[in-house]
Design goal:
single chain, mainly alpha, 9 helices, globular, disordered N terminus
Length: 180
């Protein structure tokens, strides 16, 4: 029986996923490591700001290998959870950009069967954090974020993240404003 190492390099890459995918996965792992170091150094607010400006990475991550997506989803979930804490002074625009960029990834990322993206505990914690962050935004920003989420959520095959509580609260608060 012939082993993987005895195949020509082109066949090895086809079986193993390719050098670009391996590099992308390594970079995604390094992003997670950097996030951990920033947290340990107490400068998570800077990481939050930078992640909110990742306009090129967000759409790319939607089409990337599921193993790469796993690290990007994990990193995004950690940052959303950090953002939900009151310890950080993050501008409203950064919160809006971060949610707008990364919620589609949460909805459309591969399901993580081979490598679960988030544990059964992390998913509800991330939903709770998303709810908290969304509730800190003005009503117009909430409308934009939740409308986009609803469009993505209804056409994705995933049932996560389920932000119906946030959506219901936003609907209720805007009805109260319309009545008064």
């Amino acid at each position: 029986m012939m082993g993987l190492h005895s195949l020509p390099k082109r066949q090895q890459l086809a079986i193993g996923g390719g050098e670009e995918e391996i590099r992308a996965e390594k970079l995604a792992q390094e992003l997670l490591w950097i996030m951990d170091k920033l947290w340990l150094c107490g400068v998570v607010d800077e990481a939050l700001m930078q992640w909110s400006f990742a306009f090129g990475l967000a759409p790319f991550s939607l089409t990337s290998n599921p193993r790469v997506q796993a690290f990007v989803v994990k990193n995004s979930a950690i940052l959303v959870e950090e953002l939900s804490r009151v310890d950080y002074e993050v501008p409203r625009q950064a919160k809006f950009r971060l949610l707008g960029l990364w919620l589609p990834l949460f909805c459309f990322a591969g399901n993580g069967l081979a490598l679960p993206f988030l544990t059964g505990y992390e998913k509800p914690e991330t939903e709770r954090a998303l709810d908290i962050v969304i509730s800190t935004l003005p009503a117009n920003d909430q409308e934009a974020i939740l409308t986009n989420w609803l469009q993505d959520f209804t056409i994705s095959s995933s049932e996560w993240p389920n932000l119906q509580v946030s959506y219901g609260r936003w609907c209720h608060s805007t009805r109260k404003l319309a009545v008064t």
